[in-house]
Amino acid sequence: MKRVAPKEKKSAGPLQVIFFYAKQLKREWPLFTIVMLSTVALQVANLIAPLFLRQFFNIISSNTPTAQTEHQLIVTILWIGSIGLIVWLLRRALSISTIYIEARAMSTLYIDAFDYLIKHSYQFFISQFAGTLTRRISKYAGSFETLFDSFAASFIPTILYVVGAVSILFVRNHALGIMLGAWAVLFAAFQIYVSRLRQPIRAQRAEEDSALAGTFADAISNQNTITIFSGAEHEHENTAHAVGKWRKITLRSWVADDYIWGAQGFLMVLINVSLLYGAFRFWERGLLTVGDFVLIQSYLLGIFDNLNSITRELRRVYDGFADAGEMVHIMQTPHGVKDVEGAQDLQISEGKIDVKGVNFQFNEARPILNDLNLSIRGGEKVALVGPSGAGKSTITKLLLRLYDVDDGSIEIDGQNIKKVKQESLRDAIAFVPQEPILFHRSLLENIRYGHRDATDEEVMEAAKLAHCHEFISQLPEAYGTFVGERGVRLSGGERQRIAIARAILKRAPILLLDEATSSLDSESERYIQDSLQVLMEGKTVLVIAHRLSTIMKMDRIIVLEKGAVEADGTHMELIASDGLYRKLWNIQAGGFLSEE
């Protein structure tokens, strides 16, 4: 089965983004209902206010001041003031409801995005920049605020206001109402047309933005390598290239926006002049009053204000859809390794491991394991040796289900690991990798990750067994010391001992050691070997080692070559035979890979 790394430049469309966000709004339906009702009531109030303003100017323009007209004017002013107060109250209700919806929905979106992302396969993550993925989660949640604000505070109110204004003007004068309605349809069609043209550019800009974040993150996380290899100038050029691509697409996007806004402004001037001229002609015939001019102008100013707001929001909306689309695409991508339907917890009785006819390859040009068969008894200590590329580390990854086998099966106590829950499988295995990576958290938290309910005393006991309590105790903050990103504040040997302490604390029945002592000095290794002997008691152990002297006491040694078993036996049996193991042993004993 060929594995292809996920393509970087993919993004979900606006409708898919809306579907994901709609699920969040469904959870907030009481507050969302308040937002919608407040929005409708607010636009009704905004449409009624100009009617009283029309009445006010009609009274002033057609009557001489009298007690009756003064009373009418005062009543009209009170109505205008009351509507203004209602508008103020509605805006407060709308604002508070929106704040709570956005804060709660964004919190859920952050969690949902992280929960889905973190369950993607090992293959997925080694094909991505951590900085890019982090930014996509942030943009996914942040875009909800952008889009909800735009739709709830701009798009929906504008639609309601335009429809209301056209309807009222149509009742007052059919010709002017039809003229404004036709213009509104033309304006909407123009917006929809240019929106469809603009979206690909927005999506490309979002991709370049994420790629730029990944470029920065990659360089920053490898700052030490850049310094050692005098790569600052090279990274400057690399970053400048990424910035240049971002700048190019951003300029295209912004220039296109500017042309669109110019066309919209022209359409606004056109309808303003047309309506005023039409109103003037109807006024000449006595069909409109001075107040009608005020009404028309009020509605036009309201419409223009709303449309200008939409124009300002469109760039944010396009960016919001494009930004959210990247994460939505990831959340629509099925997990590469997942539990089968009806998967049960792994039940450990002996810890017996059987590898039956396993074939595995990363791609067609690179087969790794070829019809591999292994059987490891419960409680047996087995070492895997062989040249680089023989498939030793791949076996540990398959045991942990970081990948699934192409053919064949791996069983633990007779249970196919593809048919048990992944978490129960990994709970049963303690793994110490060749290059352990730590969290940027305290040493206490890093060790406790092996058993998150462990007490401080249990953590310290594991640290003592792994011989890291000594150096931890000498640190100013001891177990409260933060280790830096990926554990960079510790030496390689110190990180390795922390990883061993974490494995000791886990107390899993199966133990995988992938060059677990490779980063230790000779003195530390002697201590660790003693600790590992205690740790391995009563467990099924699979050790990967290049330094053959570290595995001489294993129950069995399995020699791998080109993804298949070349030899199997004890150290003395393999030395006595004329095979690959003896050749490797002679090379190391000859000093090429000596233990000094």
What does this molecule look like?
The chain has about 600 residues and is α/β, with parallel strands linked by helices. Helix content is about 65%, strand content about 10%.
List keywords for this structure.
3 domains; 10% strand; Rossmann fold; 64% helix; 596 residues; alpha/beta; 18 helices
Summarize the entry for a quick read.
With 596 residues, the chain is of the alpha/beta class. It has 18 helices and ten strands. Helices cover 64% and strands 10% of the residues.
Proportion of beta-strand residues: 5-15%
SS content category: alpha/beta
Major β-sheet annotation: 6 strands, mixed
Using only C-alpha atoms, the radius of gyration works out to 35 Å
End-to-end gap = 43 Å
Count of helical segments?
18
The portion of residues assigned to helices is: 55-70%
* H/E topology pattern: HHHHHHHHHEEEHEEHEHHHHEHEEEHH
Number of domains: 3
**CATH superfamily placement of the largest domain:** ABC transporter type 1, transmembrane domain
Mean pLDDT: 76
Strands, count:
10
Low-confidence stretches: 1-9, 591-596
